[in-house]
# Entry
Amino acid sequence: MKAVLSVMRYWLDMGIDGLRLDDIPYLIERDGTNNENLPETHDVLKQIRAEIDAHYPDRMLLAEANQWPEDTQLYFGDKKGDDGDECHMAFHFPLMPRMYMALAQEDRFPITDILRQ
# Structure
């Protein structure tokens, strides 16, 4: 974990605005599981977020989790005030292809449909 935080600090000190945390549902590996959405992943994310909040409060963490919204929302963490204690933002992967479909079909339905789910 020290190496992860060191690399993270290096880039934040260089002035980047935030970090994309790639494929976070599979961050931790445990034998006998598919490694998806393990509780230990949230422990790591909380450590990373604590570092960001303590030393880089104007920076953000973006979750890349190709999951349905109800699964992705877990990566915002536990609520504290108006914010969580893990990621600040997350990609909405189910929305992405529907945006293209809506443009191609000239119809808002693919977007409004997925947002209602």
